Protein 1
Amino acid sequence: MKVLKKEKFPQIWQAINQAYELYLPIEKDDRVNFAQWTEGETVNLEALKTEISPKDVIFPQSETYLKFESDGKKLQLESVESENREYVLFGVRSCDAVSFNLIDNVFLREPIDRLYEKRRNKGTIVSLACSEPEENCFCSSFQIKPEEASPGVDVAAWDLGDKILWKPVTEKGQVLTQKFAQLMEDASQQDQEELIKLQNAIKEKVKELPLASVDPKVIKGELKEIFESKVWDELSQSCLGCGACTYICPTCHCYDIQDFAGGNCGERFRCWDSCMFSEFTLMAHGNPRTTQKQRFRQRFMHKLVYYPNNHGSYACVGCGRCIEKCPVNMNIVKVIKRLGGEG
Amino acid sequence: MEKIANKVRETARLALANGEVNKILGWKKGDFWYDSYPAFITEEEGTASLIWDSFCVANLSKYLIEQLKEDIKVGVFLKGCDARAFNQLLKDNRVDRDKVVIYGLPCPGMIDPEKVKKAGLAKGLLDVQKSEDEVVFITKEGEQKFSAREFAYDKCLTCQYPNPVVYDELLAEEVERNNTTEYFYQDVEEIEKMSPDERFAYWVEQFSKCIRCNACRNVCPACSCEKCIFDNSKANVAGKAKVDSEEQFFHIVRAYHVAGRCVDCGECSRVCPVGIPLAKLNRKIIKDITEFYGEHNAGVNPSLDAPLETFKLEDIDPFETRAKGGK
Ligand code: SF4
Ligand code: SF4
Ligand code: SF4
Ligand code: SF4
């Protein structure tokens, strides 16, 4: 275990940036979001959650993967390889770190998604434990432990005031640590003790959170029964069908494939899509989902029923972003509670 | 507000009980102090959960489009800005006035949870109460009082019509307007002071933040098309790619499509998850329209002609008289 003094941050950002692309929570116009670091940016590691989840670092909102050109008779296809260097994503909170594993379940199973796999393998993820969980956090409802290194991260870090504790957990994490070891010191006995204190404090805070008692297991019964529940009629009425909740959510991963067609040449790209959009399931024969109720139900059935059936865990990490951002205060907590018979 | 909230519940209960309406659109309270959310109520006993507080910011009028697809009569609670929105929907032929009973709520201004959070007051906050010009934050440790203006939404600080402009029944006494027009255009004037290049750079940067979630469009009472071109793959004009050109295209179309019909409710700015100041753009257009064709406040009086929907011979040619060049 190492210690990195906060006064060394500017130096380490510079150093990492030489060898990798570096993504950090960056503050702009009063808002904090993950973005690629360049000299002069305001890094904000105090803000607990970025407004939008960092999933666009591992799964960009749009990416071109094919270029095409036709001379009238022959169609030429050219596969586009991503040009990204290896990257470091620094300061990921536990919920968001777990969300990466959930997206992996979808893209890294056969048939493996080539673009995603490449980009994912290039990344080294450094998590940062949540010293101050917020009112709308409910990660503990999904057995996520914000005081610990989340499964899948390469380095786990904890904020100890004027320094961070730095613990490499994977080989990639070791490599990163070795590269910049000259900027770090070994953790002392006292640091280790402070860590335990911090972890205990976080555990206590999490227990006290207003949503700590939210439990997705209250949703019981057969898939068909849940699907046909009256609750969907009731809850979906207020949904505007905007995609805000899906685009800020760390676990939503649906995408669309579209062409930029320009005469005889063009690009094929994929981009995020939202099940809340009216043309989401539009196919050649028409659209099987024609009402907002059906779309709304899809979002939550996917997270709370289908995904768990397929992968053994819920597809929500309790980050609370949808609670904060839905224009009409509809969110997954309300859905869980209603499906569980409350209210 | 609690006294008026009682009236809200009672009005709704009676309306359902005597069959005046089949459904009530109001607000309910959720888990958090800021969590006032739209409620759709058909049973008399459901009306007990209705509320009226400083967080009933969601505009209920646009829901009427969907709700009135069923052959029912709907009772709806509308604030000042919501009532203007209703009038605009009426003008755009999206709702049927005869199928709606409007309960007007003079609005004292709503509180912006983001401002509360920024001031560091959100932690441990249990309840927020408002009386006249004061707002009281209640935590386990006790109470703290502040001036309500400090925490009001920007849009409420410049609101010109806090009293509903259309209603069947008004549930409280009208509130007084204390906002001035100078303040109204402050944001716009800041932008106008920029050079064309600065202005262009400013908007390019703002729009590049857009994640194309469509929240601004879907919340907007002036955006009520049956099928938006951005949802119509057959229209072949728009893509979902996260690139500057698509974002700018979306925003130009959005701003111009609501030009002259925007009721200045500020909902687009409020709901944008990345904080793009769309209201500045709308107000610039409102200001220009006012300068070119005289004052027009969309949604205030739906029987008036809208300047961009009518043509008079004496209308000025903005390009000739006002073209300034630049980007
Ligand atoms: S739940 Fe909220 S954020 Fe999600 S689509 Fe509906 S209105 Fe938009
Ligand atoms: S559904 Fe909501 S709380 Fe769950 S991961 Fe998505 S944004 Fe976070
Ligand atoms: S453009 Fe914005 S301010 Fe204007 S009516 Fe629509 S949501 Fe309201
Ligand atoms: S709400 Fe904001 S992010 Fe969403 S489409 Fe509108 S401007 Fe873009």
Protein 2
Amino acid sequence: MDPMPHASPEETPPRPPDPAARDAHGGEVVIRVRDLVTHYGDRQILKNVSLDVHAGEILVIMGGSGSGKSTLLNHLLGLLRPTSGVIEVLGKDINTSKESELTEIRRKFGVAFQGGALFSSMNLLENIMLPLYEHTDLDRRTMEIMARMKMEVVSLSGFDDLMPAELSGGMIKRAALARAIVMDPRILFCDEPSAGLDPVVAANIDDLILDLRDATGMSVVVVTHELESAFKIADRICVLDKGKVLTIAPVDEVRANPDQRIQNLLNRRTEEEELDPEAYLRRLTGEKEP
Amino acid sequence: MTVDIAARGPATVAALSGEVDLECSPAVRRALLDALRDGRPVIVDLSLVSYIDSSGIASLVEAYQAARKQGTALMLAAVSPAALRVMQLARLDRVFNIRPTVDDALAVLAQ
Ligand SMILES: Nc1ncnc2c1ncn2[C@@H]1O[C@H](COP(=O)(O)OP(=O)(O)OP(=O)(O)O)[C@@H](O)[C@H]1O
Ligand SMILES: [Mg+2]
């Protein structure tokens, strides 16, 4: 027999939102970045970056190598301190928050790191349970069932005992995703979730991210080079270029944007650098500047 | 969050209400495993649950497994659409015995 929902036909969000800022259109803002400036040494890396992440949206951050994507992501996670600017996550300014408050906010994050960041000495089940061990004191049975539920979600059911070294690239990405969602995060961060995977496996990961968002209403921030993936999953795309936000807009608007730098990125063309033949020859031969 | 245990006809009805999250799912787990002790069928009434997270659903899985092992019926009644979608992701909708209402679950038991 079909289960009959009892609630109103209008689907209610799975969780009452935290008191958070609202944007001009009235949508709930889960991350708010204003005029973020950051340096590595003397070099300015992010230049007045401002952006919002809305509740329930998938925001994809794109940009060429070295444009500052990972740096921005690390700021959103509170792992780096900016030179100036404001970063509010779930209504809290994470640059002025105490470590205990940061821990509280991070409990609502899930992060799937680029390389998976699995512990090689732990099997798959233990790796996926790890956040539960760190952040809760649930019964071990409960933790195991929670981890196995997420393993089923990412199609890794039954592989409890495999060690990370025994996993394929696609399995590692899916394991990282399972671990990132094991605590039912409000915000999921993914760094290159499908890079380096064959197209079918990559498409599966895209579908998975969409299904997860649809079922849970969480917000997702994805850093990716994969255009096809970005176009498929993104509600909005943020294009970074040399530390600046070129545009942040819905997918169709970004695709139609006439800015040459954006089109180059979308067409995988690298910008032709100005070449000074004399200087280049000196670089090649290791000669000093005259 | 509260768990209200009451006898109704041949069954024990465990009515959960409020948010079932990391903080209180251990209490839900204990209450359900306790409710199963006397061998009567258990109906978990979820109609007053505003939110249930994975730890809450995991507690339902454990109780369901314990019920099966001892040959007792355990049914979920009034699963919200949001909770159902999360269950569907992990294909738990194919595992649990889900009924629209407590009355419907009682009617099934009466057959
Ligand atoms: N720890 C560091 N110390 C000094 N400079 C750094 C450091 N990390 C990154 N950078 C510099 O900051 C700039 C932005 O780097 P970032 O890693 O954010 O780029 P990215 O967009 O993630 O690139 P990729 O696509 O290659 O991963 C680069 O010029 C890089 O050289
Ligand atoms: Mg990077």
